[in-house]
């Protein structure tokens, strides 16, 4: 887990048979709120569909290049269907709480799968840009109402020639609070800015402070790159978020 790095360059080499099933077994082994298991995953391998998803997800080339795209879903449709079959009500799924449960379940499952993939020597990267056009992604994957694609995940054999190193994180004292929350240590954050610039220099990446990167990402509505309409998109997908 400490060797994790996102992989965006892949080698053309077939996966061992059964790999997707193994990753899903790891995903299903994750904890899940009240055993509701309100998540699903769509495994996309068809090149034309991957290309369309790449278009919808910020035209990120690695989505096309990776042999496998796993799209992780908050899936409340299954509960709605179970309730319908039982002739029962499922009003609870209309609440923001149920949506959060679905997103958390999907994230826990996905991270288990990524860790499992990395343990097999595979690599991958999450694709949050799958939320840039939620309704179109839902249409592409034939998602029923009450299902939301939380993020994608490109998976394949890493091309180590193009790979980067483990990216440094914030100093632990910034994220670990003992007993009670402590305000951010600005000196530690400034030190991290310098560490990250050093890492970017080594990796021959463009240099940008963590601070400036975060500010640019959260600056205003435009910086959300279309994701400012998430509430509206979720309503269209059957999530009233009461
Ligand atoms: C939910 C989520 C969404 C992400 N979306 C993208 C994405 O759309 N494109 C991308 O290149 N990286 C994406 N990433 C990868 C992050 O940029 C990466 O994890 C972070 O910079 C830390 O780098 P590392 O994973 O190599 O340690 C995403 C990561 C997460 C957890």
Major sheet size, sense and barrel closure: 5 strands, antiparallel
How far is the N terminus from the C terminus? 37 Å
Query: What's the helix count?
Result: 10
CATH first level of one domain: Alpha Beta
Globally, the shape reads globular
- CATH H-level superfamily of one domain: NADH Oxidase
What is the helix fraction of residues, given as a range?
Answer: 40-55%
User: Unreliable stretches, pLDDT < 50, 5 or more residues?
Assistant: none
Output mean pLDDT: 97
Bound molecules: flavin mononucleotide
- CATH topological fold name of one domain: NADH Oxidase
CATH architecture of one domain: 3-Layer(aba) Sandwich
By helix and strand content, what is the structural category?
alpha+beta
* Order of helical and strand elements: EHEHHEHHEHEHHHH
Bin the strand percentage: 5-15%
Could you tell me the number of beta strands?
Answer: 5
What would you report as the Rg, rounded to the nearest angstrom?
19 Å
List the helices and strands and how they pair.
Elements: E1 10-11, H1 19-28, E2 39-44, H2 47-56, H3 61-65, E3 68-75, H4 77-86, H5 96-119, E4 123-127, H6 134-140, E5 147-158, H7 172-175, H8 186-202, H9 210-218, H10 230-236
Antiparallel strand pairs: 1-5, 2-3, 3-5, 4-5
The structure holds flavin mononucleotide.
Explain what you see.
The structure is a single chain. This protein has helices spanning 19-28, 47-56, 61-65, 77-86, 96-119, 134-140, 172-175, 186-202, 210-218, 230-236; strands at 10-11, 39-44, 68-75, 123-127, 147-158. With 242 residues, it is α+β, with helices and mostly antiparallel strands. It has a domain at 10-164 and 231-236: NADH Oxidase, CATH 3.40.109.10. Strands 1, 2, 3, 4 and 5 form a five-stranded antiparallel β-sheet that branches. The site of flavin mononucleotide has 12 residues, from strand 4.
